[in-house]
Amino acid sequence: MTTTATATAQFMTSEQLLKHWQGHRNLTRRIIETFPEKELFEFSVGGMRPFAKLAVELISIGGPALKGIVERNMEGYSEEGFAPKTKADILERWDKETEVINHYFNQISEERFQETFNLFGQYEFPVFENILYFVDNEIHHRGQGYVYLRALGIEPPFFWERF
């Protein structure tokens, strides 16, 4: 009897995943830029947090989480330590975190994407699922930003223009 090994096609490379994520980050950055300064920090709908606070959450997840994955550190999640006062503060930090994300993402081997990791000591999933969570969370919060901008009478960027 003969056995035949078959190769499984890969759906997406790690480079494609990072490009996809960075496309979402580019669009979220454009949402931040679109907000008037005051409304970025004060405007909300239905008791939701202002978009500046949502941006701080996103800034506090991506880079620190990837660093934790690479260093195998399950330190808890925290938004403490970054209290922006201006839109420029948020955009500057957003850009710095983009570089942090690129730095650490590129240190994750293909094999590690399949390993289970307890992110922030709370979420026990394969590394690739943790990264997809970061993207999903960003899309969710960016959707809130779209609602806010529309409520303010401001046309947001098209959601498909991510690059």
From TrEMBL:
A divalent metal cation binds at H141. One of its GO terms (molecular function) is metal ion binding. It comes from the Bacteria. It comes from Chryseobacterium defluvii. The keyword Phosphoprotein does not apply. Pfam families: DinB (PF05163). Keywords: Metal-binding. Signal peptide: none annotated. This is Putative damage-inducible protein DinB. The lineage of its organism: Bacteria, Pseudomonadati, Bacteroidota, Flavobacteriia, Flavobacteriales. Belongs to the DinB family.
